[in-house]
Amino acid sequence: MKLYNTLTRKKEEFKRISDPVRMYVCGVTTYDEPHLGHALATVIFELLQSYLEYRGINVRRVQNFTDVDDKIIDRAAETGVGWYDLTQEHVGTFLEAMDGLNVRRADVHPRVTEEMEPIIELIGKLVESGAAYEAGGSVYYRVRRDEDYGKLSGRTIDHMDELARLEPDLLKENPEDFALWKAQKPGEPYWDSPWGPGRPGWHIECSAMARRYLGDQVDIHGGGLDLVFPHHENEVAQSESATSVVPFARYWVHNGLLRMAGDEKMSKSLGNVVTVRDALKSYSADAIRLWIFQSHYRSPATYDDENLAAAERAVRRLRQAANVTNVGAGAGDRYDANHVRQRFVEAMDDDLNTPRALAAIFDLTREIFTAQSNGVDIADGQGMLRELTGVLGLTLEEPQLGGDADVAEVEAMLAKRESARQERDFATADEIRDQLISMGIEISDTPQGTTWRRV
């Protein structure tokens, strides 16, 4: 199996350094509901774990929650909700959303506020070695002392004005130094430390949590492409300086970002987010996962209702193939699906090439229908379909919409409406549309066919 390593900028054969494989994934900052961008990253790294386990490799996945941060403090002040209550609420909404997407939880979900002792210990090591220094109750990392700084992102220290812009502070020895510990400001949450009351900087948190739950070195460190600099760059620097273990992470794996139609990044700051909760009102978990996998994980994924509606139709096809009556059961001719598993594995071994893996699955679906119509026993094919889609986390179960509508009923009504339209019985077609609206179902007639969603 090969994975693209951001550190070396090339695909490399995956060779584990531990058993189980140690995987650390940067999680969310818990100040708002999770959106589909968060879902994309979480689903990708859950898939990586799932596929490694499918290949017989044990994995321990750790994915954190950042539950104290400037954004959390600002949102708490805006809403009048206590910062701790705000974070607890959104830890819950994140886990609920991921459950709704059939995401298996990580083996450990550490929270920054529960990890102060190892965080302070790690900062202490950096101060003791001279890699960091205290100033005015805060602690900063000496970037220019680290000759390897910039090796992950490819940036040089002399071109890192962004670091100074992100963390302006007159107390720093150099503008590019970054905070490991932030002295308490009036009204902010704080913890006691050898340098005075305060709270950790963002970057040190992940180094400390990875070290506590996985050791000084990890096999895979994952996160979104937007975290390469400065977050992951700073993690590399502080972790390797504190432990002298190089590399801190053997493989750096980064997923592409989610964009809206029109090539605009989905972002809370831009106000264009689609929450997981809202997406699940309109589309099944299987459809959302399939839509994610239709793009390679290192490429941008584009949110578009037509794309998701197409994914829903594609999932319906998979579901039909998995459940179609095996009229040839016990017949002499049996469909052999082993060639499909081989194609699937070859695709996934090539840096998790899910588009190619899906192509193999949909070819299998077509072959199942062909074999079934010819009276061939398709049991092995249906078993293979469930096996491979299971690796992708698809359940192939009928989605439960709730209320008065279920999928079969909606599909039957849409079929009846389409027949009425073909016969130019528009009164009946409009009546069915009104019935669907009363059931909380919105339909859209497109050149590619009729789509529907719950509203």
Structure commentary:
This protein is an alpha/beta fold and 455 residues long. The protein folds into three domains: 2-259, HUPs (Rossmann fold), CATH 3.40.50.620; 306-391, Anticodon-binding domain of a subclass of class I aminoacyl-tRNA synthetases (Four Helix Bundle (Hemerythrin (Met), subunit A)); 407-454. Helix content is 45%, strand content 15%. The protein has 15 helices and 15 strands. Helix 6 packs across helix 7 and helix 14 (407-422) runs antiparallel to helix 15. The chain is globular and about 80 Å long.
Features:
455 residues, alpha/beta, Rossmann fold, Four Helix Bundle (Hemerythrin (Met), subunit A), 3 domains, 4-stranded parallel β-sheet, 4-stranded antiparallel β-sheet, 15 helices, 15 strands, globular
Low-confidence stretches: none
CATH class of the largest domain: Alpha Beta
DSSP summary: helix tally: 15
In percent, how helical is the residue content?
40-55%
Largest beta sheet, briefly? 4 strands, parallel
Number of domain modules: 3
CATH architecture of the largest domain: 3-Layer(aba) Sandwich
Quaternary state, please? Answer: single chain
From the N-terminal CA to the C-terminal CA, the straight-line distance is 43 Å
Beta-strand fraction estimate: 15-25%
Question: What is the CA-atom radius of gyration, in angstroms?
Answer: 25 Å
The CATH topology name of the largest domain reads Rossmann fold
Total strands: 15
